[in-house]
Design brief:
Shape: elongated
Radius of gyration: 16 Å
Order of helices and strands: HHH
Distance between the termini: 54 Å
Structural class: mainly alpha
Protein name: DUF4351 domain-containing protein
Oligomer: single chain
Mean pLDDT: 82
Number of strands: 0
Number of helices: 3
């Protein structure tokens, strides 16, 4: 029984890493699109197409955060 729980835990950790990697890629993509003055609607569309499993409700926060870091209002 212990090995079964270990497998579940390992699977959860792997899923968390994958989600973290996807978020990192999304942050990078959003940052580049902002630098090239891509409009927020177009950014949302591109992310939705490339990362369909990403929680789109977090995207506005990511866009705002990246704009703030880049000093863009």
């Amino acid at each position: 029984m212990g090995s079964y729980l270990g497998k579940i835990e390992a699977r959860g950790k792997a899923q968390g890493r994958a989600e973290g990697e996807a978020k990192g890629k999304i942050l990078g993509a959003v940052r580049v699109m902002i630098k090239y003055k891509v409009q927020p609607d177009e950014i949302r569309k591109n992310i939705r197409e490339d990362y369909p499993h990403f929680d789109q409700s977090k995207l506005d926060d990511i866009i705002a955060e990246q704009k703030k870091e880049l000093g863009i209002s």
